[in-house]
Design a protein that fits this description.
alpha/beta; seven-stranded mixed sheet
């Protein structure tokens, strides 16, 4: 598979690993997909598209630089902000990925990475997103919904192909995990 690289010379990645995983019943980051932890698959995906720094935002030690949640279960925007605080000065642009979506592949991310402006997200789906660190709203609050963060950052809304939605939404329950694991595109390890 060809390596897809962002046009930005300093791409980093933030993997959101917070959350209680109540519906899954176990930590989604350590769920095995094709024999590999979800967090490892997502980190490899980030590197495959050119991320030079990969951090986890949330609880748990996964062998990556970690930006802990400012408070337990503080939400995804809190994780994004914590990850950006850790990455600031090391990268200029970040790819934000959810650990519960380990079947996303480089081709799924290509339209976001190629979008101009300050970054992009798929229309109606805030994750994954690509964001210039300079575009983080000055008044961003950890409690904001992701959609508000995307809107306020001025991210381009890339049209979403309906077939991509299940991989982007990921697996929050054992049933969703089983469904994704059985799809032709998932859970193969990214190359």
């Amino acid at each position: 598979m060809a390596r897809l690289v962002s046009s930005s010379p300093t791409l980093g990645a933030i993997i959101l690993t917070g959350g209680a995983s109540r519906r899954m019943g176990t930590d989604k980051a350590v769920q095995l997909w094709d024999g590999r932890r979800a967090v490892d698959r997502v980190a490899d995906l980030a590197r495959a598209v050119g991320a030079t720094l990969v951090v986890s935002a949330g609880d748990g030690e996964f062998g990556l630089p970690r930006a802990p949640d400012p408070a337990p279960l503080s939400g995804p925007v809190a994780g994004v902000l914590a990850g950006i605080a850790l990455a600031r000065g090391q990268v200029g642009r970040v790819l934000v990925l959810a650990v519960d979506a380990p079947t996303i592949n480089p081709e799924d991310l290509a339209p976001l990475l190629a979008a101009g402006g300050v970054g992009a997200a798929y229309d109606g789906q805030p994750l994954p997103m690509v964001l210039d660190i300079s575009a983080v709203p000055q008044d961003a609050e950890a409690s904001w919904p992701l959609r508000r963060f995307v809107e306020r950052a001025g991210l381009i809304q890339v049209p979403l192909h309906p077939g991509l939605l299940p991989r982007l939404r990921g697996a929050n329950t054992p049933e969703e995990r089983d469904r994704l694991a059985g799809e032709p595109d998932g859970p193969k390890a990214p190359k």
